[in-house]
Amino acid sequence: MVGPLRPQFVLFGSSIVQFSYSNGGWGAILADLYSRKADVLVRGYAGWNSRRALQVLEQVFPKDAAIQPSLVIVYFGGNDSMLPHSSGLGPIDIIPERNRTNESCRIYSDACLEVCRELDVKAVDLWTSIQRRKDWSTACFTDGIHFSAAASKIVAEEILKVLREADWEPSLHWKSLPTEFAESSPYDPPCGDGTTLNIADHSVALALIHWGLKRQLRYNYACWLTAVNHLITLSSEKIVQLSLFQALGISFVLKDSC
């Protein structure tokens, strides 16, 4: 155990969770964004369905643990939503890929959303969100099942939308959580005006830009200004045109170099 204690976010699911830190994954996006605000823990098990997960549920989430997670994001379904095999076994190795269809996934997704409404649990309708993109079938998957970086960005945006809109106390949205060691120090990087710069909040802004989370930036105009000020502080060029900013359609003309 290390301190200071932070809120714990647990990602619990199948391969979509286990692989969420690779290939620009949504787990990596959340971990980057919350890097000084919360600990994002991965409990992902490729090939598992929800029945398999129930067998170890109390081991993953012991009721007598001294520290309980502040947020659990559950992602099972890809291996549950396949049509049943005649043997009753599963989930993956013996089941032909043709049995996992978009229609069977829709039926499973609708059922999950209905259960979440009954239990008053927040849910994300990814079946619909991903297919809003016209080229979703080719752009959003690496192998027809697992997410590409483009799809992971959609997943992260939808999760952040839920966290922003939820009426929880305290709020778990990144903007509402305190930044660890955000106070100024004479040992922070020096600026040209004789002061020092604590880059804690700047790093959050740059994480949003790095991952191209345009919606989060639009909702948080102050974060735009933070990112701009950070670039002005660190840049010695008259014109700053970083590729990450160009992806968002932004360029800045600086009056004076630092």
Automatic annotation (TrEMBL):
InterPro entries: GDSL, Iah1-like, SGNH_hydro, SGNH_hydro_sf. Gene3D superfamilies: SGNH hydrolase. Residues 11-86 form the SGNH hydrolase-type esterase domain. GO terms for molecular function: hydrolase activity, acting on ester bonds. It holds the Pfam family Lipase_GDSL. It comes from the Eukaryota. Belongs to the 'GDSL' lipolytic enzyme family. PANTHER family: GDSL ESTERASE_LIPASE CPRD49, ISOAMYL ACETATE-HYDROLYZING ESTERASE 1. This is GDSL esterase/lipase CPRD49. It comes from Prunus yedoensis var. nudiflora.
